[in-house]
Structure formats: structure tokens, C-alpha cells
Amino acid sequence: MRATIIILFALGLAACNTKTTQPDLKDQIKTNEYFTFTKEKALDIVKTGFNAGDGYGEVWIRDYNTFIELSAEVFPTETLKENLLVFFRLQREDGNIIDGFIPREKAVQSEGGYEYIFTDLEPNYAGHKNTVETDHETSLVQAVFKYVKKTGDTAFLNEKVGDKTVAERLEWSMDFLLNHRWSEEYGLIWGATTADWGDVQHCHPWGVYITDETKYCLDIYDNAMLLIALENMMELIPSTKTKWEPIYKGIAENTMKYLWDVENQKFIPHVYLDGSPFPDDFNENEIYYHGGTAVAIEAGLLSKEQIKVSLNKMIENVKASGAGSIGLTMYPPYPEGSFENKGMYPYGYQNGGDWTWFGGRMIQQLIKNGFVEEAYEQMYPMVKRVKDNDGFFEWYTVNNEPEGSGTFRGSAGVLYQAILMFEDYANTK
Hints:
The chain has helices spanning about 1-20, 20-30, 35-45, 60-70, 75-90, 135-150, 165-180, 220-235, 240-260, 290-300, 305-320, 355-370, 370-390, 410-425; strands spanning about 60, 100-105, 115-120, 120-130, 160, 165, 180-185, 190, 190, 215-220, 260, 265, 270, 290, 330, 395, 400-405. With about 425 residues, the protein is an alpha+beta fold. Mean pLDDT is about 95; it is low at about 1-20.
């Protein structure tokens, strides 16, 4: 018995000695070769432009929002500002924000393609809007917030675009969501049925436009993005607090009331406004949304204990699926045939593909909430594959094989920012 106790004690002591101590972790961060490579590669890639990646001609606001801070490392303030102004010049009559823009000469109308948007305010670019998603307005507010914080250019808010200032246009875009994407019953914004944060709806072979077959629903990603945007807007423009602070609090309360599954400690994928598009025998709530959960944490919706539970679930899902990182969009994926778009097969694209673009955001939130060791462990496969594949690929298969654009700037942006956060931690005494 005594010998057994001694052995157990020795094993326990050995286990304690193998655990990463704080000084060790700080040293590892400072000397991590993958961090160094990823930072240098991110700066090289972002120097080459503002489109989402080499597979895209457009500048998308949901992407630009995630690499504008990285762009600020290599581009002058005026260039960053001009990109933001294009979105404001192409803002529609009801306040809505376009999804992306492209040079006018490249905006060739084709059957079944984008319906391009032109305005007198913007002579050089044409816009388009993926109407199934509800994150364009919120992405622009967040991008402006990051731009102002990074550059100190507060005067930008008073710059006139047509008959409105940038500040007025920001609030106008939030009004659009209340006027045209608002559920009175739930006190939340709605969108079409997509996979987590994705912008491809369940119906139509392409799936980017609302159609007669669209099924409207509430989800965590859109509403968490709105909370972040409102918080950003109220900080940038304090005069908006009187109107928007009560709305903000209501959205936060309603998000947890209607979308948080207390029993299973997870977000419900969709709350439908007019019925689910999926078969009655399909239990959609078995699906765990990784990306939307990460953004919900950024919005401050989850406690530290709930964040740890969420991380544990993500790690379990990665093991169960065989995926490469917690950037796994969701687990399990939607069954074959759930989406008409052929790219949305199980573990394909947004239906269970592994996206660093969102996995990196989870890393940032883990660091921010004090889970630095856990963040470091989960960051490793993301930065390793940057070096292994010599690039920032759009997404990875369940077998960790790269897919899509190899210069996906959104992934570069979120990883670069996460590494800066690690370095800040490592340099504290």
C-alpha cells in the first residue's frame, strides 16, 4: 500500500512538472517559429491588396473588417479610409450596406450572377449584396471602429458622404436592421437559413439571394455581430447612447433567452419565424456552431465558466470529426442534400469546413478571457499549417487539406492579431 502511494505521488509530481508554467509559456511565445513565420507571411500577403483573396475580385466588408488592422501596418491611413468610403458611397436608400465592391469595368452583368449596384456618389466601383446574410451593416460599423482606434482618425466620423456624415451613415445602417430585419416577436434580427456564420442559404443552387423559398430565422452570429457593432458605435458616437443602449440591452437579453440552450450549454442553431426547411425527424439542435459561439463570446454574452465549457465542446468536436483545428465550422455537419449548393456537402465549405478565419477569433477571445495556455495549445495547428502550406488558405477539409484561396486575408488578419495578443501577454511582468 505504502509503495503504491509513493508511486502515485511520484506520478502526480511528474504530471505537475510537465504542465506548462507561466514563465515557460511566455518563453515559448517569444521563440515560436510558427508565430514569426505567420506574422511575416501575413504582412507580405496584405501588402498585395484588399480583395478577400486570390480567388476573389471583390473587396468584401465582412472580410475587410477582419484584416483592416493588419492592413494598417502596411498601408497609409488615406488608403484604408478610401475603402471604407466606397461602402458609404454605395449605401442604399434605406440605409443598408453592400456586401462587396468591384471596379466598375469588371462589373459585368451575367444571367444568374450578381445584380450590381451603382450610385452617383461612387464613380469608380459597383457594389453587390448577398441578401441572405445580415452582417454587412454590423461588419462596417466594426471596421470603422477598428480603423479609428488604430489610426486615431476621429475626424473621419464627421466627413461628409453626400448629404450625411460618416457618423450619421453608421447609425442609418443600424436603423436599416431595425426597420427591415427585425423580429418584433423576439426582439432580434433575422436572416435566411444558412450554416452558422455562412452566407449560402439552404435553397437555390447558388444560395446568396433571398427567394420565395427562403426560410427566415434567428441565429447567434448575426445578433452577436449586432451587439458588437452597437457597442462600437456608442463608443465612437456617444450621442447615440440614449437611443441605442436600451436596444442593445434588449438584444443581449433576448439572445440568451431565445438562442441559448441552458440544458445543453450551447446556442440553438436557428429559431425559425416561418417553419424549418429541414425534415421533421432531423434534430438540428444536435449541431454545435463554432463560429457563432466565438463571436458570441466576443460580444460578451458568455461567462468565463460558459467559455470553458464551449472550448471543451469544440475540442471534443475536433476529435470526433478528425478536423485540424477548432476553426471547424460546426459539428456534426448538415446531412447530404440539406443545401442545394453543391459545395455545401458534409464537411465542405461552410458546412463543416475548418476556417481559421473564425478559429482565430476564438483564440483571441480565449486570450482576452484569461485562457492563455488553452489558446496557445489550440493556436498551434493553425499557425503550423500556415507554414506547412506556405499561405493562408480559405478553409481546410476534415483531413486538414487546404482549399480555396491561398491568400485569404481574413485568416491572415485574425492570426496576426492573435499573435500580437500573445506577445502582449508574454511581455508583461
